[in-house]
Amino acid sequence: MKMMTCPLNGPRNISEFAYGGEVIPEPASDTVDDAGWASFVFLSDNSAGVVREWWCHVPTSYWFIAERHRRSNEILRTYPASEVFGAGAQAKDQPA
Q1: Alpha helices by DSSP H, 2-96
Q2: Residue 95: pLDDT over 80
Q3: Which one, of 36, 7, 34, 33, lies nearest residue 24 by Cα?
Q4: How many domains does the chain have?
Q5: 78-91 per-residue burial string, b: 16 or more CB within 10 A, e: under 16
Q6: Would you state the pLDDT for residue 96?
Q7: In 3-state terms, the chain is what percent helix, strand and coil (to 5)?
Q8: What is the CATH number of the domain that holds 59?
Q9: How many CA atoms lie within 13 A of 80 on its CB side?
């Protein structure tokens, strides 16, 4: 059984989580064109190595970031979004 450590709930079965995509900077919505927005939404680098990804612990709706090695699929680290986005993300880290 594959496990992932949720920063809020501790180790859990991977079936409790939903993948949310790679953590990448969002383009400014007032200046990006359709092609730029489509690239942001649908295209990814998909290169081998470590990537930061959004994950959600579905039972609690808790979103966090995981660092995963794409080649080995090993989850190296999980942490609250506030570590990347600062204190402003703290309220969003808490379950509803």
Answers
A1: 34-42, 82-85, 90-93
A2: no
A3: 36
A4: 1
A5: bebbbeeeeeeeee
A6: 46
A7: 25, 40, 40
A8: 3.30.2270.10
A9: 14
**Where in the sequence is the domain holding 19, given as residue range(s)?**
3-43+50-93
Quick check: 91 pLDDT over 80?
Answer: no
**Structure-token pair, residue 25:** 């900077």
Alpha-carbon distances of 46 from 3, 49, 74, rounded to whole Å:
23, 9, 15
H-state helical runs in 43-85:
82-85
pTM of the model: 0.79
**Residue 78 pLDDT level (bands cut at 50, 70, 90):** very high
Rounded to an integer, what distance in angstroms lies between the CA atom of residue 95 and that of residue 78? 16
